[in-house]
Amino acid sequence: MDLAEIEQQARQATKEIVEASKIKRGQIFVVGCSSSEVLGEKIGTNTSVDVAVALYKGISSVLDEKGIYMAAQCCEHLNRALVIKREAMEKYDFEQVNAIPQPNHAGGAFATIAYREMPDRVLVEDIKAKAEAGIDIGGTLIGMHIHPVVVPLRISLSKIGAANIICARRRPKYVGGQRAIYDESLM
């Protein structure tokens, strides 16, 4: 697997999601990732720290430039806890928990790398569905972290490496029924 290509795909996908979702500085972008799936293997069977590093570099380069917080989801063995900057935890009033993600035991490679690389990071159990947008790389189930109503985003990529990706954003709920007129810029 070409790590430079994986990094480039992650960067491109993130740019497209940021643009399409209209996520703003100071908002949260959730990332769920299976490095095994990126390598064409079943989730949890071929963890790769090298793949996780490439993905993290590609994604974080876009988010950091825009001032958007990344929330890196751990695997189910840590109950899908999230690695996030302390500043975001304090801003959104999340509760810190005590665990250190590991690539082959609990957490997964991507969360492990986020924990290692993200400045002033903490682990939180839940982000209270406050994410505005995100990417699910390899079927890791991120929807629970995105503020309702979650809608899929179609971008130019459908895969990163061999992993299917599902991109999502939130939109405000529609209210008012059939007589209502909606703001197209929020749809």
UniProtKB/TrEMBL annotation:
Gene3D superfamilies: Hypothetical protein TT1679
Similarity comment: Belongs to the UPF0340 family.
Highest taxon above the source species: Bacteria
InterPro entries found in the cross-reference section: Antibiotic_NAT-like, DUF436
Protein's recorded name: UPF0340 protein FC20_GL001423
